[in-house]
Amino acid sequence: MWLPSFTYSIFASSTQSRQSPHNLCELLETAAANFPTKGITIYSPNAPRGVGTFISYSELFRRAKHNAFLIRGIKNINPASIILLHFDNHLDNIEWYWAVVIAGFIPAISTPFPNDLDLRKKHILHLVDTLLSLICLTSERLEPEFAVQDVLNIFTIEHLRSIQNSSSELSDRGLSQAADDIASLILTSGSTGNAKAVTLRHGQILGALSGKSKLHNTSTNDVFFN
């Protein structure tokens, strides 16, 4: 999973400050402030070999804050909302995962849909029942995949970016998350039945990062590959 892999070095950096982060929002904020030029290189399957897209922690934090501002303007969204993220590339997944976290909501990372339309509809309806969520973020290119259902409220990131939003409500929710609060939901592949949602809490993720960082004696100069 890409979340812990690229946060090893962020956590190693943040532990050198006086106070360790209490949640994922603080984790990225600390990395952006203390190591603004460090970041992530993302390699696309369709890109030439060795050519990647680099995004610094400071730029990721800036984009995530801006996108969180857009998410908070979604109609009927509430503090307990779980937001399904359905993308087919790492950059969109990373950017909008952090946007949902900073906005103070719970992201659930989608898996690829079945090609069979009946199975796809069944899968989507199962996700709605499992997540108790009616909100999904995707791209305009992937929006047609949802044509088999009329339950989920689909919001494309292109549409959100076109809206002039002045909402400032819930602006501190991301920073106020406690260790026991749910950070995200990870969906299983569903290969042995319906997909299940695995709960990850802020404290669990930070604890895992801390343990792995200490075990491998990581520093701010280490590079991680996933």
From TrEMBL:
<dbReference type="InterPro" id="IPR000873">
    <property type="entry name" value="AMP-dep_synth/lig_dom"/>
</dbReference>
<dbReference type="GO" id="GO:0006633">
    <property type="term" value="P:fatty acid biosynthetic process"/>
</dbReference>
<dbReference type="GO" id="GO:0031957">
    <property type="term" value="F:very long-chain fatty acid-CoA ligase activity"/>
</dbReference>
<feature type="domain" description="AMP-dependent synthetase/ligase">
    <location>
        <begin position="29"/>
        <end position="212"/>
    </location>
</feature>
<dbReference type="Pfam" id="PF00501">
    <property type="entry name" value="AMP-binding"/>
</dbReference>
<dbReference type="InterPro" id="IPR042099">
    <property type="entry name" value="ANL_N_sf"/>
</dbReference>
<dbReference type="InterPro" id="IPR020845">
    <property type="entry name" value="AMP-binding_CS"/>
</dbReference>
<protein>
    <recommendedName>
        <fullName>AMP-dependent synthetase/ligase domain-containing protein</fullName>
    </recommendedName>
</protein>
